[in-house]
Specification:
Elements: E1 2-8, H1 10-13, H2 21-32, E2 39-45, H3 49-62, E3 67-71, H4 82-89, E4 92-93, H5 95-106, E5 119-122, E6 125-130, H6 134-155
Parallel strand pairs: 1-2, 1-3, 3-6
Antiparallel strand pairs: 4-5, 5-6
């Protein structure tokens, strides 16, 4: 399975600090899918809506990623535009993913309700916005795995 991994951060894309969230996505996905061969297609981009949307299109339409996981850019700051870029490219929104992550994270961090993470379908690809914090990725991604697997089976025409 080809999985797109898109880290959205002005500072990480400029090399000011190391991207820790992207590698955490890979670690958690491999843990959730033991024995399943996964090929990751990684990108690190600044918080720029058009570039993010273009990368999402490329990962889905050109690279053939059936799953695209983004990290970062889902908060309320002016530069946080990941949800808008995601909505620019998806055909069907799946609000349950964002709702579940906010509820899980809110139990630990009350400010988690500021997250605007979204998810949706583009063609036969599932796109999910994850938190930008590696610890939150480790808490949220495993609980989403069953729904992601079910969605990918539907998109592949196996359900």
């Amino acid at each position: 399975m080809r999985i797109g991994r898109l880290t959205l951060s002005d500072r990480a894309s400029a090399g000011i600090y190391e991207d820790l969230s992207g590698p955490e996505i890979e670690r958690v996905v491999r843990e959730c899918l033991p024995g399943s061969p996964c090929e990751f297609v990684a990108r690190v981009l600044p918080d720029e809506r058009e570039r993010i949307a273009a990368a999402l299109r490329e990962l889905c339409d050109v690279e053939g990623c059936t799953l695209v996981l983004t990290t970062g850019g889902t908060g309320p700051s002016l530069r946080d535009v990941t949800p808008e870029a995601t909505r620019d490219v998806i055909e069907k929104e799946l609000p349950g993913f964002g709702e579940a992550m906010r509820m899980r994270s809110f139990e630990k961090v009350p400010t988690a309700i500021l997250s605007r993470a979204v998810a949706g379908v583009r063609g036969r690809s599932l796109i999910v916005n994850l938190p930008g914090n590696p610890k939150a990725i480790g808490e949220c991604l495993p609980m989403l795995a069953p729904a992601m697997g079910e969605c990918l089976r539907h998109l592949a025409g196996r359900e």
